[in-house]
């Protein structure tokens, strides 16, 4: 069953962009994420107690806190904030899908891996396919601003750094307890941001509550645990390459939920993404000794 984990992860992770679009009309981005973490942290604490997960050292807890700030804090915060200032959902998902290329570049420095020419080619073909999908579907509708690009840059760098740190320093940390520390640190960040630069107001309605429930159960529990599992048990570059599938699937979800138009370019680009992943998947990065 482990062979299906990346596909399940991509399907779940891609719904985060749609969830942001559903929920942001009723709350500011950091406030929305604050409430998400307010629910997630106690639930993870209960799961740790019920499943009697072993404790971890203070050093490992600190590392998990840092990973949480990067992936659940600055990455999610940057994405949600960018969408809230008008950045197109398609462009947002495309921009952060540069993650596999950054991971490949910095894996040589932090993880001492060598990326082959074929792997580099698959990475760039994957990004090209994503660009074709988004261009054919949305034509960059929305407000593209320097602030939005800046927020997405913070998000992109953060998830890249968080992935590398998790891979290098957290190989033996339990997923459940480690995730609890990650979410706890991001909760502190959102509490500060919500009450300092936002109003903290929420329009509580059925749509917002349903969106929040989806983000908590499907994203914070299922998708993130699958991501942490893949990072621990796979090569960082391989794991990151699956993010290429997120924008095409996000586009399809946009068509399903928001009646966004598709074109033949959507299918051409999607096919190129799948080809790129198949091209890079059989390879194994070599390790310098």
TrEMBL record:
Subcellular localization(s) per the UniProt record: Membrane
Subcellular location, principal: membrane
Residue ranges of domain EamA in the record: 7-134, 148-278
Record-linked InterPro entries: AA-Vitamin_Transporters, EamA_dom, EmrE-like
Coiled coil, from the record: none
Record keywords, A-Z: Membrane, Transmembrane, Transmembrane helix
Alphabetical list of Pfam families matching this protein: EamA
Gene Ontology cellular-component annotations: membrane
Membrane topology according to the record: Multi-pass membrane protein
TM stretches of this protein: 33-51, 63-87, 93-113, 120-138, 144-166, 178-197, 209-229, 241-258, 264-283
UniProt record similarity statement: Belongs to the EamA transporter family.
Protein name: Drug/metabolite transporter (DMT)-like permease
Organism: Cocleimonas flava
């Amino acid at each position: 069953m482990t062979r299906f984990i990346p596909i399940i992860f991509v399907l779940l992770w891609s719904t985060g962009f749609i969830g942001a679009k559903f929920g942001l009309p009723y709350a500011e981005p950091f406030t929305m994420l604050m409430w998400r973490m307010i629910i997630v942290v106690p639930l993870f604490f209960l799961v740790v107690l019920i499943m009697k997960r072993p404790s971890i050292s203070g050093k490992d807890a600190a590392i998990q806190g840092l990973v949480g700030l990067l992936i659940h804090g600055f990455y999610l915060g940057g994405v949600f904030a960018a969408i809230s200032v008008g950045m197109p959902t398609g462009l947002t998902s495309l921009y952060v899908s540069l993650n596999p290329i950054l991971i490949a570049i910095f894996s040589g420095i932090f993880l001492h891996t060598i990326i082959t020419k074929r792997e580099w080619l698959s990475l760039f073909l994957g990004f090209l396919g994503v660009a074709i999908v988004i261009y054919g579907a949305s034509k960059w509708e929305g407000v593209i601003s320097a602030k939005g690009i800046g927020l997405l840059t913070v998000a992109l760098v953060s998830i890249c750094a968080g992935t590398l740190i998790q891979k290098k320093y957290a190989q033996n940390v339990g997923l459940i307890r480690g995730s609890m520390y990650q979410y706890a640190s991001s909760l502190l960040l959102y509490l500060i941001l919500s009450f300092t630069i936002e109003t903290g107001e929420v329009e509580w309605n059925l749509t917002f509550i349903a969106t929040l429930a989806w983000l908590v159960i499907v994203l914070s529990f299922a998708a993130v645990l699958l991501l942490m599992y893949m990072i621990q048990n796979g090569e960082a570059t391989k794991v990151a390459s699956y993010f290429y599938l997120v924008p095409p699937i996000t586009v399809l979800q946009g068509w399903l939920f928001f009646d966004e138009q598709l074109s033949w370019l959507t299918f051409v680009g999607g096919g190129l993404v799948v080809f790129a992943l198949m091209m890079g998947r059989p390879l194994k990065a070599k390790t310098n000794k």
